[in-house]
Amino acid sequence: MSDSSTQGVKTILHPVTDLPKAKAVYAALLGVQPQSDSDYYVGFEAEGQQIGLVPGGAQQGMTGPVAYWHVPDIEAKLAEVTAAGGTLKEAAHDVGGGRLVATFTDPDGNVLGLLQDR
Fold first, then answer.
1. CA angle 68, 69, 75 (to 5 degrees)
2. Higher-confidence residue: 58 or 31?
3. pLDDT in tens, 25-53
4. What's the pTM value of the predicted model, to 2 decimals?
5. Domain map of the chain by residue range?
6. Nearest to 30 by CA among 19, 49, 50, 46
7. What is the largest CA-CA distance in the chain?
8. Could you tell me which residues come within 8 angstroms of residue 1 by beta carbon, excluding any fewer than 6 positions away?
9. Domain 9-116: which CATH class?
10. For 31-77, what is the HEC assignment?
11. At 92, is the secondary structure helix, strand, or coil?
12. Under the phi-then-psi rule, with left for phi > 0, alpha for psi from -120 to 50, and beta for the rest, what region is 20?
């Protein structure tokens, strides 16, 4: 396994317009309460899957849910996918706790995410 292989999709972020209503629906769907709960992000853990609610996500350019592929080396994977024809949308940046995220689009404009925990 190379350093740039993926560890699978483990995180999916959903843009929401009404965080309290969305939080109630996702808590009912998943059968758990959020692990992280703030005004800017609500995150659930369900069976090893991270489900995040992003208020104002549409204003940040999110047009729908974004699946994040977990990788050990985000820069290497970004280089691979852009060399293969993907287009960088959001460069790798730290979102707290040493977690790096980035997004790119495939040739059809679908947004895909990459996530690296340090």
1. 105
2. 31
3. 999 999 999 999 999 999 999 989 999 99
4. 0.84
5. 9-116
6. 46
7. 42
8. none
9. alpha beta
10. CCCCCEECCCCEEEEECCEEEEEEECHHHHCCCCCEEEEECCCHHHH
11. strand
12. alpha
